[in-house]
Amino acid sequence: MSAEEFSRYDSMKLPHCHFYLLHKGVRSLVLCTMCRTCASLLSERLERLGIAYRSVTDSKVNLYFGNRMCLEAVATFIHKPLNELSAEEDFMLGAMLGYDIAGQCERYCKRKSPGVSSEQAAVN
């Protein structure tokens, strides 16, 4: 195995953990950002495992996989780069990916009221 192949294999360890979490029901949706080569390899594996996925290609590939209904929901608003999502879309995606809800609420408030601290936003 060459150094390049080992490096690529090493970067593919994380999706294996996600497969386990999906299988055990801990997660319903996963987002991985990777190079096109790794995305191609991962897509092949997802197909073999019967896991639904959707990719949005750009200079990097954002590969979403997991529960088919979650992917259908994501497809309704993920049609642009992630940094262009509205505050509501960003919140919804974060919640669907299993991010800390309190952290997502704080992020949402900051995006909706730039320059206002989270404590001020909570009081108003």
Task: Outline the secondary-structure elements.
Blueprint: H1 3-11, H2 13-24, E1 29-34, H3 36-49, E2 52-57, E3 61-66, H4 68-75, H5 87-96, H6 101-112, H7 118-123
Antiparallel strand pairs: 1-3, 2-3
Helix pairs in contact: 5-6
Structure explained in plain terms:
The protein is of the alpha+beta class. It is 57% helix and 15% strand. The protein contains seven helices and three strands; from the N terminus they run ααβαββαααα. The chain has helices at 3-11, 13-24, 36-49, 68-75, 87-96, 101-112, 118-123, and strands at 29-34, 52-57, 61-66. The chain has a three-stranded antiparallel beta sheet with strand order 1-3-2, with helices on both faces. The mean pLDDT is 80.
Assembly annotation = single chain
**Sequence stretches where pLDDT stays below 50 over 5 or more residues:** none
* Order of strands, widest sheet: 1-3-2
- Number of distinct helices: 7
Cα separation of the termini: 59 Å
Task: Please tell me how large the radius of gyration is.
Answer: 17 Å
Order of helices and strands: HHEHEEHHHH
Q: What would the principal axes of the Cα set say about the shape?
A: globular
Helix content: 55-70%
**Global mean pLDDT:** 80
What proportion of the residues form beta strands (DSSP E)? 5-15%
Question: Can you count the beta strands?
Answer: 3
Query: Main β-sheet: number of strands, strand sense, barrel status?
Result: 3 strands, antiparallel
Structural class: alpha+beta
